[in-house]
Amino acid sequence: MFRKMPFILLAMIVLAAVSHSWLPLAFKSFLYALSLSLKSIIVFCLPFLIFGLLFKTASQLAKKASKVVFFLLIAVCASNFLSTLISYSVGHFAYQFDLSMSLPEEGVSLLPMWQFSLSKWFENSTAMFSGLFLGIVIGRWKPALSESVSSSLEKVIALFLKGFLCVLPAFILGFVIKMNHDQLMAHILRNYALVFTLIACAVFSYIVLIYLVANRFQASACVRSLKNMLPAAIAGFGSMSSAAAMPLSILGAEKNAQNPDLPRFIIPAAVNIHLIGDCFAIPIFAFTVLKNFGVAEPSLLVYLSFASYFVLAKFSVAAVPGGGILVMLPILESALGFNAEMLSLITALYILFDPIITCANVLGNGGFAMVMEKCLANGDVRQVEAPILKKAL
Questions:
Q1: In the chain, where are the structural domains located?
Q2: Which end of the chain is more exposed for a tag (fewer CB within 10 A), N or C?
Q3: Is 305 exposed, middle or buried (0-12, 13-18, 19+ CB in 10 A)?
């Protein structure tokens, strides 16, 4: 089913684009409510999934896990900072454009037929750190107990991922229906095509470069790796949540890995903090908004200060729609001098482009997992044999 998923999801998107004009409003509201309900269930289950994945791998890498975690955090910071630094050059280029942008006109937004939400028992960050800590402690001092718990978690995770694959088309369809109903797609293509093209070319060129480096510049291997991550990328585009697309990200990264346990460790740990799409989109949008309001372009020194705060703030981002820009607003205000109107505009731009940004985040995490696996494989981290997710395929 995993191999057919890109075609199924693309068919759902095309179907939504073609049919949204003649579908009854009540039916569109029903589909949107269904997608929101499924998303609530997925987000509710994510902490358990994160805990299970990190516990199992950390327990198997107990003697090396502390080194792996430290190296992972350093690598995430370095990757985010490099992406943000590259965005300075792209933003400087965008600042030269003759831009005059406006906020989209208010329209009748599609409302869900019902509201359904589940309150999470604990946050993703709590699940991540507790999974790492307990996996290391129990794996080192109680290996038999660790193996028993890991075996039980393996069955639950496989069942969850299998169910997720089954409901994914319905999960995506409602969000695409809403974007078409609210005319966001048409507004993006009509009014922001130039900035959209610039950001898309920059971020996806950089992501392709990451995959090329990870595959030692073998074009066929690079294409294969990107193809394996395509279902996750489409899921991220439709849901605007890299956290919701994480199960597919894990499956795709596992297919690209020689040692599947490392991507299962890396993807959950990096999903909320390694956001290449945000690192390109927000700074480039910042430059275009500054130009639109006639504010002077920031110097490299000012931008480096902004980039440092920007990278640190990534550790507080929730990978949900609009989450990437909300925590950045105080930094844009203090570091780049944004006023309330400018903050409103960049927030609207970010939300309009959130599907593309999330798609880039998901692909970027897949490439990051490949690079990290190559780095760790060349070090002293031993491979472990535990095919957790084969049953989900």
A1: 2-390
A2: N
A3: middle
Helices (H) and strands (E) in the chain, counts: 15, 0
Q: Which CATH architecture has domain 2-390?
A: Orthogonal Bundle (1.10)
Q: CA distances (Å), 120 to each of 123, 155, 320, in order?
A: 7, 22, 14
3-state secondary structure of 60: helix
Instruction: Report the candidate in 261, 244, 256 with the shortest Cα–Cα distance to residue 68.
Output: 261
Distance of CA 185 to the CA centre of its chain: 20
pLDDT at 272 over 90: no
Q: Looking at residue 319, what DSSP letter applies?
A: S
Residues 112-117: contacts with CB under 8 Å, at least 24 apart: 112/29, 112/32, 112/33, 112/36, 113/26, 113/29, 113/30, 113/32, 113/33, 114/33, 114/37, 115/33, 115/36, 116/33, 116/36, 116/37, 116/40, 117/40
Whether this prediction's pTM lies above 0.85 is answered by no
What's the distance, Cα to Cα, between the start and end of the chain in Å? 7
Buried b (16+ CB within 10 A) or exposed e, 306-343: bbeebbebbeebbbbbebbbeebbebbeebbebeeebb
> Given a cut of 80, is residue 97 above it in pLDDT?
no
